[in-house]
Design a protein that fits this description.
The chain is an all-alpha fold and about 80 residues long. Helices cover about 25% and strands about 0% of the residues. The model has no long low-confidence stretch (mean pLDDT about 80).
């Protein structure tokens, strides 16, 4: 008896959360404008430019493989514990 109710509540929660990620057609509210241009910028960025993450926010992945084994350099700070 409880199982169908729990399943329907979970399905409703999943469907409600699925609509949260919609970011198409975002515009400022009526009477408001986009933020002013940053200091040194020649023009105000568009909404798409403001929503696009920078490379600092989402760095590129480096898939460079190790081509040859190399011995590690000595670590000057790898000291034994004091007695």
């Amino acid at each position: 008896m409880k199982r169908p109710i729990v399943m329907s509540l979970m399905l409703g929660a999943v469907l409600a959360l699925a609509g949260c990620g919609a970011a198409n057609g975002l515009k400022p509210l009526e009477g408001n404008s986009l933020p002013v241009a940053p200091l040194g910028a020649t023009e105000t960025p568009t909404a798409k430019q403001l929503l696009t993450p920078t490379t600092q926010a989402r760095p590129d992945r480096s898939d460079e493989l190790l081509r040859k084994s190399e011995a590690r350099r000595g670590d000057d700070f790898d000291l034994p514990p004091p007695n």
